Amino acid sequence: TVTEPVTEPVPTAEEEEEEEEEEEEDDGLAGRFLRLEREQSALLRELPPFGEPVSHIYHPLDYAWEPHRDFVRRYCRTPKRVLFLGMNPGPFGMAQTGVPFGEAWHVREWLRVVGGVKKPPSEHPKRPVLGLTCRRAEVS
Q: Which stretches of sequence are listed as region Disordered (predicted)?
């Protein structure tokens, strides 16, 4: 389900406290990973804005946090021998779902990830965020 645009990408102190409580329940690997991601996202928000020709920047860990958190809690329970050096989230993958390399159909049907996706504050008209209902597939 896609809801209204995220007007303030930085969670309020109350929201962060609630999320920290939820993540503390899962203080294992997934909880530690989610806290680290929140810290890194905060650092990214501090970067100076990009200039032309960049007109839109999507932050899926802000507006698609719920399915992302569900993905991490489901699949990041034990140590893995994996290293992500960089990710191209793509307009029909992580930009829609919050799940790395995950187009909506696979995230929803194969991985069984759930959660609401909000609209980003500035959405490109040719790249709308439809969340887990997106029918387009990544070509890469």
A: 1-31
At 12, is the pLDDT very low, low, confident or very high (cuts 50, 70, 90)? Answer: very low
- 8-state DSSP, 3: E
Rounded distance, CA 81 to CA 68, Å? Answer: 20
**Tokens read off for 10:** 């930085």
Give me 114's structure tokens. 């759930």
Architecture in CATH for domain 13-133:
3-Layer(aba) Sandwich (3.40)
3-state secondary structure labels for all residues of 43-72: HHHCCCCCCCCCCCCCCHHHHCHHHHHHHH
Whole-prediction pTM: 0.78
